[in-house]
Design brief:
Shape: globular
Distance between the termini: 29 Å
Largest sheet: 5 strands, parallel
CATH topology: Oxidized Rhodanese, domain 1
Helix content: 25-40%
Structural class: alpha/beta
Radius of gyration: 13 Å
CATH class: Alpha Beta
CATH architecture: 3-Layer(aba) Sandwich
Number of domains: 1
Strand content: 5-15%
């Protein structure tokens, strides 16, 4: 699906949170998923598969420096079926962001983040 995108593992995102040097973390999946539980400090940035979601993402990153480290995540479904990451990654690339990674969530947010004991809010 998005093998050509730079990726980061959940354990590495959790480690950066623990060290206090987390990148900008943006959720680009369904809002209901974000409202249920999300990564601490992450921002809901619109659903990547929808035009209005991409517009929200564009507005969310408008004031960020183009060299800011950004991690996008969704977790709505298994990685190879996710409709949200690829459009969001492509949008940020087209806007000139140079340090964007997708968090690799092999199963879903619950199994790949919550069930592993990583922090949520």
């Amino acid at each position: 699906m998005a093998a050509d995108f730079p990726m980061v593992e959940p354990k590495d995102v959790a480690a950066s949170l623990a060290k206090g040097n987390a990148p900008a973390i943006l959720h680009v999946g369904p809002n209901v998923l974000y409202r249920s539980k999300h990564i601490p400090g992450s921002v809901y940035a619109g659903m990547g598969a929808r035009p209005e979601g991409l517009a929200q993402l564009k507005a969310t990153v408008a004031k960020l420096p183009h060299d800011r480290e950004i991690v996008l995540y969704c977790g709505c479904c298994p990685w190879d079926h996710c409709p949200n990451i690829k459009p969001a990654m492509e949008l940020l690339r087209s806007m000139g962001f140079t340090h964007v990674k997708a968090m690799y969530i092999p199963e879903n947010f619950k199994a790949s983040w919550i069930d592993r004991g990583y922090p949520t809010e």
